[in-house]
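Replying to the earlier thread about multi-chain prediction with a worked example.

Input:
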Amino acid sequence: MTAQVITVTSGKGGVGKTTAVANLATALAADGKRVVCIDGDIGLRNLDVIMGLENRIVYDIVDVIEGRCKLKQAMIRDKHYPSMYLIPAAQTRDKNAVSPSDMVRICNDLRPDTDFIIIDSPAGIERGFRNSIAAADRVLVVTNPEVSAVRDADRVVGILEAEEKGSPALIINRLNPVLVKNNDMLSAEDVLDLLGIQLIGIVPEDESVIIGSNRGAPVVTDTKSRAGQAFRNIAKRLQGHDVPFMELEQQNALWSAFQRLTGRK
Amino acid sequence: MEQTTSLVQIKGIRDGLLASFSDAPWEDQCGALITQIDERPAFFQGARLAMDVGLQVLKVNDLVDLRDRLSERNVVLWAVVSESPTTEKTSQLLGLATRISKPRPEERKQFADVISDDTALFITKTLRSGTRVEYPGHIVIFGDVNPGAEVVAEGNVIVWGRVRGMIHAGAKGNRSSFICALDLSANQLRIADEVSAMLKPQKDPKPEIASINSEGRLQAELWHTG
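Result:
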């Protein structure tokens, strides 16, 4: 069996690409899949931090490309899941150190012994983005329910369609059901209406995501977190399972009522 | 070597380099271009390249492939000038310019002359952010025009869908041009040199038509049948 290469991208920065990569990879690894994450953001790496692996980096992807180490040497094994690896980006180089064909070659080398290769694309639509989508079998576009993020996502979808990468799937991240209810935030329907692509998951706004990122322990391992549940569901859908979408609104209203009662916020 | 240079001519223009393609098979010409670049890497390092592909009919994959090969050699492809509408559409989809600042010789003029007022470009997809479509006649779009997309026509623009991007009709100054759409909640409309910012997302959208009224102002009104 050969791996599926999934690229996570967004156009706009700061919408949660890296968080999504770390969480989806962890969820897939927790399901027993062999996963390799590749940080495509050469020069501004941070997937290693989110995954809590920064102090284990010896070699990076540019070392592999320029022949200073073997591919296996640049693969850092995760602390908790032995079937998950990270290939970090170089921090001291720029996007031009990698070419689209380098990415294709690395992914092809990884394919035989892996189930999922997840590539974290940098923001933007330039070289780094092109590198990241070059090898993709499937692309996930992350957006926030904000006008600017949706417009950038639209641009990215247009480019992906023009490059005949197929229609990408959409993750709406950091949706706040209370704001949506009060008409202060775009709803998932508004976003989908504009982008017109398949939805693969809605991740509610949840502070445990930030806490998890800062601790280097993705929120997906927290069974009580709603965002974690959303990422686990997306991971199941990536494996081809049919998982119903969470009822965000009702449960979240209940949840905030509960939070008010217990004084948790 | 002599043969390869005759396949693709490269010369300097104001905006960088211009590669002119002949009618020989596309693959051979790409090869010739890459060979030329590989022979003089220092000269091409960091160059901005425009291509005049003549009558070549190019699909997205053709251009993407060449662009990637160029970008691996640190050459940026920024414009593709073509006489084929298919190729022109492809380049627009990829966000490449289809005109270079230096006006092309006679052929470009001929192209404009051939297009009479009654020809229309028919687009059957949603135009997403970053897409710019320009046409010297009318434009008909079967799909939406999303925010960040731009449609520029010398004639009229008809959209069977929602308009949330920018539309410019009568771009060469024809004040009798009009724009109509099923849902005209564009963030900006232009007809000739009139500009109207009409930010009004509609709750219950109805078909509308925008034109320049008797007072010379751009206005949109509901579409009435009959």
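The first helix of chain B runs from residue 2 to 7.

Feel free to reuse this layout for your own posts.
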